[in-house]
Each structure stands twice: as structure tokens, then as C-alpha cells.
Amino acid sequence: MRKFAAPARHLVETMRNAAQGAPGRTVSFGGAPGSNSHKAMGEYAPDGLPLPCYGFNDAIDAVKTGKADRALIPIENSQHGRVADIHFMLPESGLAIVAEHFLPIHHALMGMPGADIGAMEAVYSHPQALGQSRHFLGERGLVPLAHADTAGAAAYVAEMAEARFGAIAPAIAAELYGLEILAERVEDAADNMTRFVALAREPLDVAGMDPANTMTTFIFEVKNIPAALYKALGGFATNGVNMTKLESYQKGTSFSASMFYADILGVPGDPAVDRAMEELAFHCRELRVLGSYAVARERG
């Protein structure tokens, strides 16, 4: 609790007290009240109880310890790419992906009442939000300063009460923390979108899932031999399985081989998917399915 700026603590405490009475309805998220994760949680689970946590790891731990039924975590943004460290957090969490949710992102620049953008020196926000607004900040000579989350940055600026500092956050954060909106929609791209995934202690039962409307996420590490990745992925092409996402990342310090994070349209149990996954496994040192869940937004 003490990690949150003072203006946010009362809201956080109120939400946490409500969540303690009904953990089965609770959805945890990383960030202070008023953050994009909070907004996404309200859309994903309108009847759920929000449990704000200081960081993504805290939100994941809330599910692991039974304080929340699910965690809603952002994993990638259309303009700024994947959220830092998320590829490590998901496999290490031991939780399963059970849903996805897409949230259009709109940022506002806010500051103390009466503040002037021209006299402002620096702006706090989450690194993703700063990256999504870099042209706006650069044109005005505003120094970007990283904070744990967007709404938390707004609460921090309210706590400092200095006109020379501002925050980039959802507009609702200004209302929650007594700030004034100085500029709206400061994101550099009009089609700014963030993808979230919901994590639970148990995976969904794949029986009866429609392969055409199901996303399956997995990680794998190919053997460190020539053409291993080419051979490993060939089964998806020959079996007509659409891979919608493939990203590499380094695990450890050896740099001898890369881990890969992938999404496919399909579900284990479907013959085409099973054949493709069997061929993939043959060429891999490690393969782990993180979950199968309904497609929330059509790809392509």
C-alpha cells in the first residue's frame, strides 16, 4: 500500500477491502485506480471487483494466493510493441491464459490546477505511455520520466503539487486525483490499441472450443542446429494452421538460443493443430502451452 502515492491510497484501500469479501469475483491488475488496466478490467469483467496492485507481478501473485480469481495483464501495444518482461512473467507465473481483451488507448496530459504546458519541465507516466506520446513530448521539450503506471503517475504528481511536473494518464485519473487536463489525446497515433490477457490458476477446458475462433498461446525453444526454426514451423504451413504472432526473446545470458512466443488460431485436440504441434515438439528443447481461449478481435 505504501508504494502508491498518498492521493491513491484511500481508493486502493477501499477497493482491496471490497475484494477481500469476494475473491471469486475479483480481477487484479497492475496500476493505481484510473489506469488503463483498471479501465480494461471494467470492460472485461463489468460485474467484477477491481483489485489494484502496484505492479504486474503483484497482480499475478494475487491470483496465485487466491486473493483474486483472475489477473488482467497488458502484453502488447499496437504502437510500442510488447510490454517489457511480459514474456518472462507469463511462463514463470504458472497461470494459464483464459481470455484476451483489446482496449483503445487515449492519453491526456494533466497537471496541477492552473498549470501551464509552456512552463512545464517534465512528465511522468508508464514507459509505454511515454513511448506512445514521444512526438507530443518532444515537440514541447518535455522530459519523459518513467513511473510504474499511468494513473500512479497522476497520483504522484498530485502528491508533489508542483506545477512544473505533469502526468500522462487516462482522463479519469485527473478527476480522481484533483488534477487539470491540459491536453487530450496526446498519443501519437489515432489507432493506438493495447492487448490484455486474463490469467487464472486453471486453464479452460478445450473440449467443444471452435478452432476457428480460438487462440492458443505457447512458448518454445528450438534445438540449436541449422534450420531448426524453419523445420519447426513447417508443420503449421503444411497443416493449414494460421500463426498470428511470433516473437523471439533471450532467456538467460548464454545467447546460444532464443525462446519464441507464438499465437495460433486453433485449439489442441483439432487434428491439424495436433499434427503441427507434434512436428514443432520434435525440433524443440522446450514447448509449453500457456492457454487456449476465445478470440476477442478478428485477426487480419
Written overview of the protein:
The structure is a single chain. With 300 residues, the chain is an alpha/beta fold. Helices cover 31% and strands 32% of the residues. It has 10 helices and 15 strands. The protein has helices spanning 6-20, 36-44, 56-64, 86-93, 127-132, 134-139, 150-160, 171-177, 228-238, 271-282; strands at 26-30, 49-53, 70-77, 81-82, 96-104, 108-111, 122-125, 143-146, 165-169, 180-184, 193-200, 214-222, 243-250, 258-265, 284-294. Strands 1, 2, 3, 4, 5 and 11 form a 6-stranded mixed beta sheet that branches. Strands 8-7-9-6-10 form a 5-stranded mixed beta sheet. Helix 7 runs parallel beside helix 8 (171-177). The relative contact order is 0.15. The mean pLDDT is 94.
Overall average residue pLDDT: 94
Structural class: alpha/beta
What kind of assembly state do the chains in view correspond to? single chain
Major sheet description: 6 strands, mixed
What general outline do the C-alpha atoms trace?
globular
Task: Give the strand tally.
Answer: 15
H/I helix tally: 10
Q: Which sequence of SSEs, written as H and E, runs from N to C?
A: HEHEHEEHEEEHHEHEHEEEHEEHE
Radius of gyration: 21 Å
From the N-terminal CA to the C-terminal CA, the straight-line distance is 42 Å
Strand fraction equals 25-35%
Low-pLDDT ranges: none
The percentage helix is 25-40%
